[in-house]
Design goal:
Elements: E1 2-10, H1 15-23, E2 28-34, E3 37-44, H2 47-58, E4 63-72, H3 77-87
Antiparallel strand pairs: 1-3, 1-4, 2-3
Length: 88
């Protein structure tokens, strides 16, 4: 499981619209809103899926920027397989 925390910045006057769109994306949880900043987390099965979701956030109408705050990907199955292969 890959867990990431991000801040999504919305354009003025579009925060509610962006928040609603974020809440409708699988794996995305909206935690709080502070002005135009929306704090979200992403839970995904792999790093590549998490990155795809993050990339999609930028495409939401009204989003000005997406900033990664934290990512934990040590449980990603692809990374674990590479680490096991390197240890052999």
């Amino acid at each position: 499981m890959v867990i990431s925390s991000l801040i999504v910045e919305s354009h003025a006057g579009r925060t509610a619209e962006v928040r609603s769109a974020l809440a409708g994306i699988g794996g995305v949880e909206v935690h709080s809103v502070h002005g135009n900043s929306i704090v979200v987390s992403i839970e995904a099965a792999s790093l590549s899926i998490s990155q795809s979701i993050s990339a999609a956030l930028v495409q939401i109408p009204g989003v000005a920027a997406v900033q990664l705050v934290y990512a934990n990907f040590e449980d990603d199955p692809q990374i674990q397989a590479k680490l096991k292969g390197a240890a052999s």
